[in-house]
Amino acid sequence: MHQTFPPIAPLREQPFAEAPTPSDSQMRCVGGGSVGGKGTGLRLLEQILRTYTDLHTLEGTTVRLPRTIVVGTDYFDEWMQSAGLRTAALDEALADEEKLAAFLAAPLSDALREDLRRCLAAIPMPIAVRSSSLLEDTELEPFAGVFSTYMIPPMDDDVRRLALLEDAVRGVYASVYYADSLAYMRATGHDAGSEKMALIIQEVAGTAFAGRYYPHISGVARSMNYYPIGDEAATDGIAHLALGLGKYIVDGGRSLRVCPAYPHKVMQTSELDTALRETQTHFLALDTTDQDLTLVRNDAFNLRKLHVHEALADGALFALASTYDPYDMVLRDGIYDGGRKVITFSGVLQHDVFPLPALLQRFLRYGREAMGGEVEMEFAVRLEGNRQGTFFPLQLRPMVAAADNADTLAEEIAAVPADRQLLCSHLAIGHGRVDNVQDIIYVRREAFQAMHNPQMADEIERLNRLLTQEGKPYVLVGPGRWGSSDPWLGIPVKWPHISGARLIVEAGLDHYRVDPSQGSHFFQNLTSMGVGYFTINEYANDGHFRQEWLDALPALHESAHIRHVRCPQPLTILMDGVHRKGVVIC
Fold it and tell me: What is the model's pLDDT at position 527?
């Protein structure tokens, strides 16, 4: 990223505007040195907000950065030197808790303490203290999520709140040297001893409820989608939405997958049983009741995992939930008496209560242009009434580059000679390279009859169990829709029954032509687990599958319908999710 930015105003010289306009900066700086990876991404976001005026023209919608103060790297360098912490920090024999205790015991400089006091005065609402390492948010070696983030609630006692902020600063600094961080830096060829850390002290976007604080919507959006489904294109991007704090998504909680270009087509809510099973049931909120907090290694120590009915009691679900009617067996958009509340974001996605899809499309497009490549953005939304709300972009960073980019993969796939292509698909989803697979389970084409699909599902489940116990991933090939609830359309496996597969292939037959799957819960698992999915229809000259090559190999398992073979050498699986091409090289 090569950008020229104006200097960030020092906090002491320019306080935040009480009612900021789009031209007012929401960033201030204390200390000197670099602003780090997150700081650079935030500066780019502010530049986007000033440049693209159409982000501010949506009726009833405010778009702004949260109030943000960057603590430059000079404070980190000076403190690590003056406190004599580097020896303990780099001692891998010390447990994380011991390192944190050493950092918490070291006094901060008077200058930093005074700047932190000013930070609290400038941001009276809940704040997050985040790392902004020089290593973070790079395209090839992402450090996002490696270091700690602490949240601090408002407090009646300003002295106690300042003490907690100071401890949070020490805790984020200490996290650079935790065992996981050191292992990650070592694996990526970086020297922990030369690391420099800036900090981001940022307003937590959200709403105060009784004893807790959280945004109505948090999310992560990416400008490139390697798992496009139906009418989606890879370049349409993808977003994952959740009620509550965004850490819920980052930590792998259940979110709603949405393509901003097709907000009315959400695979998790396309079928009733999927919506009831695959949508969010819990969320994270900042606990604002505890005024006697003591900082610990776990940076989520003052967050609470709550059931969604707590948000219903807060009145926070008015545009986010649908109600399950058990009598008519349907989901009804909105909140009604009785019935389970399902987090569908229907008011936002279906009824334009807040223009989130339009904002995400614009931000992803402008972010891609500004950064010169694919981007990932974290964001939050505070709803403020019917068709009123504030959108907060929180972070912008380059998307993690796959081991091979799309152009390189496309060239490699095109160069594979036909006699080395075990499988070739022109309708592939997934992205990247897999080199550690030797096992293939495939349905014998000559013996296939749809009436035996349930029996084959049981057989595949048993093989999957054996292979997962042995730690051997595999390729799964068969006709029809894998995971179909209708056994006449495909083999009705459930996800746990094929959990060891790294690539799943729908290979149509001339006498068994089924339209390719277009998603639901099955595709939700594919995308979250990074599993490839190929569609091949040889009868239409659309891809090919050389079953005869596999037939010549000895079988580890063979029945009337299924064969399991182990190839003499590992296969190479190439998946180009941008151009929808895929190949398995034997």
Answer: 67
pTM summary value: 0.81
Token digits of residue 245: 């704090």
For residue 496, pLDDT over 70 is answered with: yes
Kindly report the CA angle at 208 between 202 and 210, in degrees rounded to 5? 140
Confirm if 345 and 241 have CB atoms less than 8 A apart.
yes
Distances (CA, A) of 303 to 94, 110, 373: 27, 30, 34
**In this model, does residue 526 exceed pLDDT 60?**
yes
Q: How far apart are CA 263 and CA 273, in angstroms?
A: 20
- Residue 47: partners with Cβ closer than 8 Å, 6 or more residues away: 3, 5, 370
Query: Cα(146)–Cα(139) distance, rounded to whole angstroms?
Result: 15
Residues 62 and 26 sit within 8 Å (Cβ to Cβ)? no
Report the C-alpha gap between 325 and 338 in whole angstroms.
Answer: 8
Rounded to whole angstroms, the Cα distance separating 359 from 582 reads: 33
Quick: pLDDT tens for 359-411: 999 999 999 999 888 899 999 999 998 789 999 999 998 886 544 466 788 88
DSSP state of 509: B
Q: Cα dihedral angle (494, 495, 497, 499), rounded to 10 degrees?
A: 170
Phi-psi region of 399 (alpha: psi -120 to 50; beta: other; left: phi over 0): beta
Residues 6 or more apart from 489 whose CB is under 8 A from it?
Answer: 480, 481, 514
* Closest by CA position to 399, among listed 183, 205, 235: 235
Contact 292, 318 (CB under 8 A): no
Cα 247 to the chain's mean position, in Å? 10
Residue 494 in tokens: 């459930």
Q: What is the largest CA-CA distance in the chain?
A: 80
Q: Do residues 174 and 182 make contact, with C-beta atoms less than 8 angstroms apart?
A: no
Q: Helices 110-122 and 73-82 meet at what angle, rounded to 10?
A: 140
Query: What whole-number distance in Å separates Cα of residue 71 and Cα of residue 80?
Result: 15
3-state secondary structure of 351: coil
